[in-house]
Amino acid sequence: MSDLSERQFIAAIDQSKKSIYRICSVYASPPLEAQDLFQEVVFQIWKSYSSFQHRSNISTWIYKIALNVCYSSKKNYDRKHVRTSRLDSIHFMADDYDSDDETTTRFKALSGMYR
Question: To the nearest whole percent, how much of the chain has pLDDT over 70?
């Protein structure tokens, strides 16, 4: 990258850093920290800066990269850390109402099945 391109890159990042950080903050959740996402976004912008074709404003291009990087990072994290809830802690409790013998038998059968 030439000195002129490097200076343009730094200026573009400097202009967009608040916007980039805002996006990173939205997608950040422990352990995905906003600072880490910010660094990854800047790295990806740096890698693809030479392919920028000036079809749009550079800030729009940077915004799009930031969204894509943050979304991908969040999606990958969520896929690797699927959160499941076990239902072992749910217990059936009989209400204090008059019930017939058949209802009581069914309730006892259900209660025994889930313990």
Answer: 78
